[in-house]
Amino acid sequence: SQTIHQWPATLVQPVGSPLSLECTVEGTSNPNLYWYRQAAGRGLQLLFYSVGIGQISSEVPQNLSASRPQDRQFILSSKKLLLSDSGFYLCAWIDRAGANVLTFGAGSRLTVL
Amino acid sequence: DAKTTQPPSMDCAEGRAANLPCNHSTISGNEYVYWYRQIHSQGPQYIIHGLKNNETNEMASLIITEDRKSSTLILPHATLRDTAVYYCIVRATGYSTLTFGKGTMLLVSP
């Protein structure tokens, strides 16, 4: 079966510290992968998407970067966190060979202090 | 992606049908209508999608008007656990990105 794993679930980081959120998908190959962010009380904002290994598209300029070192692995990073980076980060994938349904992970809640 | 318009909030009594409208007057012929919902502090969950015909699954029904300019998501017997933000999205298959609007906050009350 197809599953998506995202970790850590929650983290509290000081301003200026680095960040690494990881997402992996099982049970499929060559998926489209996505990182969304949801700030408190706000909507879902698409940050990055990837259609293949090493291929990253950025939707908004920001303090974050993404990488896809393997087919089913998507990593969100920052070298120095800002207060404004706080939010709920969601990884998602689409099986391009299937019904094109976007499936989300459980999310990672980041608080920057 | 074509733009969608949804009411910001709706109320529904438990056990009654919840009918959530969505306008997508600029939808293109190859764009599907997708519905997702997001329960507080969780990732969004896929509900249903359709192109022209009405669709039904174990969660909901999707009614698309003949001109495809609007649709309605129907939860036939709403429960308290259906309280969530519901997103209507139009998207062509094969298109890389999926853009979420503000959605409709559905509050189901006892």
Describe this structure in words.
The complex is a heterodimer of chains A (113) and B (110). Chain A is an all-beta fold. In chain A, 0% of the residues lie in helices and 58% in strands. Chain A has strands spanning 3-7, 10-13, 19-26, 32-38, 44-52, 55-58, 65-70, 73-78, 87-94, 102-104, 108-112. In chain A, the strands form two sheets. In chain A, strands 2, 4, 5, 6, 9, 10 and 11 form a seven-stranded mixed β-sheet that branches. In chain A, strands 1-3-8-7 form a four-stranded antiparallel β-sheet, with no helix packed on it. Helices cover 0% and strands 47% of the residues of chain B. Chain B contains no helices and nine strands. Chain B has strands spanning 9-13, 18-23, 31-38, 45-50, 55-56, 61-64, 70-75, 84-92, 104-109. Chain B is globular, with a radius of gyration of 13 Å. The model of chain B has no long low-confidence stretch (mean pLDDT 92). The chains are: A mainly beta (113), B mainly beta (110). At the A-B interface, strand 4, strand 5, strand 9 and strand 10 of A face strand 3 and strand 4 of B.
